[in-house]
What does this fold into?
Amino acid sequence: MMEQVLESENLKAAWRRVKANAGAAGMDGMSVKDFPAFTREHWPGIRTALMKGTYRPAPVRRVFISKPDGSQRPLGVPTVLDRVIQQALAQVLTPLFDGGFSNHSYGFREGRNAHQAVREVEAGWQEGRRFAVDCDLKSFFDTVAHDRLMGQLREKVRDPLVLGLIRRYLTAGVVLPDGTREATPQGVPQGGPLSPLLANITLDPLDKELERRGHRFARYADDFLVMVRSAKAAERVMASLTRFVEGRLQLVVNRVKSKTAPLRQCTFLGFQIGVRGRVVWSEKAHTRFKQRVREITRRNRGHRVQDVIDELHLYVTGWLNYFGISHTYNQVVALAEWIRRRVRLYYWKQWKRPRTRRRHLLALGIPKDEVRMATRSRKGYWRMSHNSIVQRALTNDWLHKQGVPDMRTSWIVLHYGPKARV
It folds into this structure.
């Protein structure tokens, strides 16, 4: 199997994937750009070490990213070399394991995505499963038992070189921001190309147990929801699920965040079940969206308007591509209007001086007497962004031509196709 991993075409495919993902340098400081020159000189020796089982992965560089709740999520950044090797391993191992994974597992699998997992929850509601077990695994990636995971790998991987290499990746350690090094006696560091597959292998027995019990559920990585028909059933499943996870899987259930509740009170991957049993985005997702748009269009940023619009377009398009499956047309319309108002505010702030505003308003077709009224107004920026004169100058169509995203039109196209009337 190690020969398959190191086969030329497999390595080329792994490099293309790592190169496309770009990413930061690991602890050795090597960038993706510098990697080809490095391999031309050093690859023969690295390959020999891999075939002999003497290759030692570098520790991952620990970074922390802020979460919406104010806490921080630890991520591990492997070196570019180790990312390529891990990706090559994943490409060989995935076909061995993926075919046996549960149909209810949607995370990090070819042809599967978060939207399908959310639709699974929606289908559970339609079946009458109106209660849920919302189980949170505490620090999942940091608490995976290595011996247990290696035992699962041995069921399908016979090559001791591959098994030994994976074990060394698990125990390579981390380098903290202050330069100190920590051992990793347990856990799978988030950030490496191999980690998602190892996470799915770790949790596959959970999927199989839930299937054996006849439950309807959806799992995306370590985020999963079990749907049942009554509150009593939810309590019963939570108790047995906790015993299984902590006993059989040697993981920890976060009792503070885990709960049994009506399905409509549960958030899954940023979505909830709405009033009519249809998928809607969560209130937290809505709040985070508005916070980010406010940051982008903050009037004292001092950026060029076009740069702000380009950044806004990129963010809104990406957000809508994910959350656009939500059945929240009225909220989309309101957000579209609000975004345009934020952009008008930014324009008004950028123009700043009365003569600059006068010049722009005249160029946009506003009569002189009305221009005089607008430029002499002492109203604040937010109030002026809703002023009828400013709105007639910076029309919806004009803003759209500048690149301001039209959420309403995008939402209609997502739900009804490009030929739908907007």
Q: What stands out?
A: The longest helix spans residues 329-351. The two ends are 55 Å apart (CA to CA). The chain has a mean pLDDT of 93. Strands lie at 60-66, 72-77, 131-136, 174-175, 181-182, 216-220, 223-228, 259-262, 271-273, 279-281.
